[in-house]
């Protein structure tokens, strides 16, 4: 074998047929990354909207549009849909699922997804390896997909006791082929940590944006908004459907986070009311120190 | 006169001597922009820290370090210092202020600055034109200064009844020479709008960052933080000293904003508690719609 041949993708790709349910940013980027890594043979795309599927095909993200029935015969199926839609999709897949097919998802909550998968797949639940790629953008649709989206990003898997080790290893391998750093966690720890660092920021950014936009003097205020406002509210432009599902799905953890944050906000409000500059200064210093330390560690 | 000569800066700059008190991002960028526009003769820098002044000189932002006494004899003085320091600086300038010297500031609150200026300058308050450039960065110090910082950014002036029209026009002209879009407002409207679109986001970002960083499982959470967290918390890394002054200075407007936002947050929390998906979806849609509209208008 020459060097040139060695550098080419293996003749037999590790995933002969990949099915992606939802061909937007998340699903389309997964397909694009695996294709670039030479890991897939054929890519099937499943979705509600024929025009979106055709755009994904024209962009080379998928080879053909397919049904859930056809997806059930693929080697790997990624469900890239809002978490509220996953139980229905899994139930739709189940009658068509080959014994060798593995299914994974990209949902931002994992406890409720696990329960949904148990209801939908029953005895075949061992074929479902729950996952969550922590990567995204406020851009959506197949046009936003790119092969590099997952490079150096974290993907969390929350394997089920029923998952064979080999099944977890295959899903891990697919994400690693996309350039991601894969870690496993239990679903409750995942949901609590994500409520804190992802769902709560979205909650605050969206409700803050709503508050400002519906003031009587909104136009004058928004004209004076600068780059701080821009960055702070960027995530508020994200998909309402997706976030509605996430908040309801991770409700318990979210309500806990909201209460805990409120205690800090109220402590600061009391300090401001009584003009306690020392207490305020201490809180602002600890916040700035923590943010700068995080930034240094991540080089962002 | 040839075309070539016409394109050159005028031989006599409009500001023969500029003094900048505080030679970091804001003051350094003002000096750099006016120099680039050919509007200044000599630039004096005033500051507490000799090493910072020397760095500003080495970077070409200022020509020489100076005292407040020397600054009082300049043609234009920009006070680029935290709002809590402005009264002391104005009082320090007053005995040295030439009749032809104009003073302006870059403070983020304007009602309290006006009161401070009246106390410090008394009968000479007409020489002080309050201003607020809405531009910034989380980078600080002379190294962060750049001539383009104010290009296409808004600068608000909140003129005093005592300011001669010509004084306001000269300060406006200096900011316009920096490429900024200048508008005038009354100080109460400025403070209320800025509380909404700048001070409240900083309050939330900083206190949220503090909350996450001081959780018992902070390390695990922060490892899972992604790009949404990064943007949402970016402003929390800003100067604690500056923000401490802003919050105390704009306390009344801030406490009002905090109460009003709380009503929206609590409405959403009740919807989440009772699993009212329709109410949540409506709030998220209005927020995303408003954010996307703002983004389109601003092309950001």
Number of strands of chain A: 9
Secondary-structure element string of chain A: HEHEHEHEHEHEEEHEHHHHHH
Judged by helices, strands and strand pairing, the structural class of chain A is alpha/beta
Strand content of chain A: 5-15%
Total domain modules of chain A: 2
| Overall residue-averaged pLDDT value of chain A | 94
CATH homologous superfamily descriptor of the largest domain in chain A: NAD(P)-binding Rossmann-like Domain
In quaternary terms, these chains amount to homodimer
- Calculate Rg of chain A over CA atoms: 22 Å
Return residue spans of chain A where pLDDT drops below 50 for at least 5 consecutive residues.
Answer: 1-9
Care to describe what's here?
The structure is a homodimer of 300-residue chains. By secondary structure, chain A is of the alpha/beta class. Chain A has helices spanning 3-7, 25-36, 50-58, 68-71, 86-93, 111-121, 165-177, 187-213, 218-223, 227-233, 240-249, 251-273, 277-298; strands at 15-21, 40-46, 64-65, 76-79, 102-105, 128-129, 131-134, 154-157, 181-184. In chain A, α5 (86-93) runs parallel beside α6 and α8 (187-213) packs across α12. The longest helix of chain A has 27 residues, at 187-213. The radius of gyration of chain A is 22 Å and the shape is elongated. Mean pLDDT of chain A is 94; it is low at 1-9.
Short synopsis of the structure:
The first copy, chain A, has helices spanning 3-7, 25-36, 50-58, 68-71, 86-93, 111-121, 165-177, 187-213, 218-223, 227-233, 240-249, 251-273, 277-298, and strands at residues 15-21, 40-46, 64-65, 76-79, 102-105, 128-129, 131-134, 154-157, 181-184. Chain A has 300 residues and is of the alpha/beta class.
